[in-house]
Amino acid sequence: MKNPKTPCIGICSTTSVGDAICRGCKRYSFEVINWNGYDAVSKAAVLKRIEKLVSQILETKIRIFSAPNLKSGLERAGVPFDSKLSPYCWLHNLLKKEHVQINDLTEYGAYVLPEFEKFSLTELCELIEQEILILCQAHFDRYFESPQPGVDNST
After folding, report:
1. 90 and 74 in contact (C-beta within 8 Å)?
2. pLDDT per residue over 105-121, tens digit each?
3. By its UniProt entry, which InterPro entries does this protein fall under (predicted)?
4. With a threshold of 0.90, does the pTM exceed it?
């Protein structure tokens, strides 16, 4: 297995402000810190988790109709993305880095679903981020949080 590249998009909040979950790439702080020590399988597992969580949220709000247009838009804007991941992960990177500069999402091969058209792109991005962070925190609490002594977490 080839060593996966870092999902970092250059706006790390774990190292700059001490967040438990990076507002940029959505890795947990311990994953950011230990990334270079992970083997390819461990890195791939982290990327797969992020891909599932991000895609789960974005697919309910935005539709990608042209991955090639999205890819070329990312390249034009200089936004990093991993072509091995879902185009919804690429879109997430674009929205994180460039949403203020985007006037027409269709130029990037995507459109906002009708029930979310009432939001400005900035408002929609804030909603998406809130939901992704909630989902990431729930995943962390479920799979990484140490059980409390005397508390039955099996239910």
Report:
1. yes
2. 999 999 999 999 999 99
3. DUF1289
4. no
Is the separation of the CB atoms in 46 and 38 below 8 Å?
A: yes
CB 20 within 8 A of CB 140: yes
For helices 87-98 and 40-58, give the axis angle rounded to 10 degrees.
70
What is the spatial distance between Cα 2 and Cα 71, in angstroms, rounded to a whole number? 22
Closest CA to 32 of 46, 49, 51: 46
Tell me how crowded residue 17 is: count the other CB atoms within 10 A of its CB. Answer: 8
3-state class (DSSP) for residue 62: strand
Q: Residues 107, 73: contact at Cβ < 8 Å?
A: yes
The secondary element (H helix, E strand) that includes residue 111 is strand 110-112
Q: What single-letter DSSP state applies at residue 128?
A: H
